[in-house]
Fold this sequence. Notes:
Strand order of the largest sheet: 1-2-3-4
CATH topology of the largest domain: Nuclear Transport Factor 2, Chain: A
Strand content: 25-35%
Number of strands: 4
Number of helices: 4
Order of helices and strands: HHHHEEEE
Helix content: 25-40%
Amino acid sequence: xxxxxxxxxxxxxxxxxxxxxxxxxxxxxxxxxxxxxxxxxxxxxxxxxxxxxxxxxxxxxxxxxxxxxxxxxxxxxxxxxxxxxxxxxxxxxxxxxxxxxxxxxxxxxxxxxxxxxxxxxxxxxxxxxxxxxxxxxxxxxxxxxxx
Length: 147
């Protein structure tokens, strides 16, 4: 009879472990939503995906001509591992737009829930019929300053 409580605890721990593994797999394989091409949110999604993937040429192609950021700036930048982005909202006002996202960085392994969240607003302008990101957007806060 003394072994029965240990068996129940072991079964509960095993069930929790299986649920954690399933949650990690589902989270890792979840597809990012796609947005209608040509919208400010789609431009921001393309930009952020390119930044996270290290495709600096594609990232810079999403920037307006007033942005001081270059491919060289991106090449010198640091981006921590485990970054994900969540869309908060977007707003269009004539020829300008704002897209607000949360940039979430995980700081641990699969059983560590430590995360850092940064609220980021990307500003866009409409030029020649296309939306482009202005300024020095996340994570490029000091473009054009040299290395």
